[in-house]
Model the fold of this input.
Amino acid sequence: MRKVPALREGDTVAFISPSSQSSMDSIEKAAKITEDMGFKVKITRSCYESEGYHSGPDFVRADDLNRMFMDPDVSGIFCVRGGDGAIRLPQRVDLDAVYRNPKVFLGYSDITILHLMLNRPRGFITFHGPMPASEFVRDSFPGYVRDSLLRAVTSTEPLGEIVPYESAPPMEPLVPGTAEGETIGGNLALVCSLLGTPWEIDTRGKILLLEDTNEPVYRIDRMLTQLRLAGKLDAAAGIVLGQFTNIQPRKPKDSFTLQEVLEAVVAPVGRPTLINGCFGHDVKKATIPLGVRAVLDGSRSTLTVIEAGVE
Done:
């Protein structure tokens, strides 16, 4: 997978809103925080618009994505938040032009749609990490989250071991073993939503990263089983399950636990698997490049990124 140019002090990053809308107050605060990190900020039209539960019409959101990739003055693209709507964009994106202009692309959650579109064989490395209107404005951003982000998008050295933040649950093996491969994945629901499309995830020989939020355990069961039936779990070299938040069942006595689902659906596949990866919808998260080589070590309960995402 192709690396992208590292962000440097004084570079311009564009704020785009491919999914749901954010308040202008949060966007303006996030812009100031981004400027304090040493970057210039360009706020695009989609950040100002709203249509239903989207941040403007499909053509506006897709146009911002296309234009920012082709803008020679823009070195990075930060998606301001997730939500809903990114799945409408792939057919409107000029992929030939985008692939010719690789640059730092940041986001998670609904942005998984765009990660999978950009992480194609002709594409480039992208970054699964915090978003301006969602995380930059939180009190928890300084420290672990900010430092992890800046290191991922500015340093040409591999990230090394992805160490959980202090007080985070430790990573643990669900299935023992060691695996090496390129990282791929993101939000479980969005990964499943692209099955059967031209942008369907290719997990062959890769380290599959999955996380989710606001999904009852029975839906997580269904989606993981769908990936298993589609051969995506079997094809992976290894699996890392990240933060699954706000998944409490309405009737706990009549529900499986998440651990029971993982043991029933994922463990029998036999791929080396870790749980409690430090990425996803928790308040704190690491930034992880997608498309870089990484090593999963079940005996040490570690995920180590051995290739830089930028050059």
